[in-house]
UniProtKB/TrEMBL annotation:
One of its GO terms (biological process) is proteolysis. GO terms for molecular function: serine-type carboxypeptidase activity. Its EC number is 3.4.16.-. PROSITE patterns: CARBOXYPEPT_SER_SER. It is an enzyme of class 3 (hydrolase). Gene3D superfamilies: 1.10.287.410, alpha/beta hydrolase. It comes from Dendrobium nobile (Orchid). Transmembrane segments: none annotated. This is Carboxypeptidase.
Length: 144
């Protein structure tokens, strides 16, 4: 929700904690949907255990997107969808995109998700590999 309040949502939070219209909001040109992912985090409802693997998490997000798209007119499904996330969300964005790309051929065109791209900011797509080089990268930046 930080992105919604401080980056590209319809409002900005002022220093005196008032909401101000954001003149640079993305929702002037695009529809935005914020989903806490995986299920059980943030405000998402939890009916069972929190999924721990990327395949389950991607599958839950895929089901959520399919449910959302099925509640709108069929023409809505053809609109381009961009998945975006930051930090550790980079793992989930990549996994969800992979899952969508592998599910689309299984379904008829009328039920496919029109994935047009992904965006990952400061992504922790492979934390074990990335954390090992953080100190070395930081030293290179300082001494160059």
């Amino acid at each position: 929700m930080i992105a919604s309040l401080f980056e590209f949502g319809p409002y900005l939070l002022s220093s005196n904690l008032r909401l101000l219209p954001n003149p640079f909001t993305w929702n002037r040109r695009f529809g935005l949907l914020f989903i806490d992912n995986p299920i059980g985090t943030g405000f998402r409802h939890l009916s069972s255990t929190i999924p721990r693997d990327r395949i389950s998490i991607a599958s839950h997000l895929y089901f959520s997107l399919q449910s959302l798209l099925s509640s709108y007119p069929p023409s809505f499904r053809s609109r381009p969808l961009f998945l975006s996330g930051e930090s550790y969300g980079g793992k989930f964005v990549a996994s969800a995109a992979y899952h969508i790309l592998h599910q689309n051929p299984i379904f008829p065109p009328s039920l496919r998700i029109n994935l047009a791209g992904i965006s990952i900011g400061n992504g922790m797509t492979h934390p074990a590999a990335q954390v090992r080089v953080n100190a070395a990268t930081a030293c290179l930046r300082i001494f160059r």
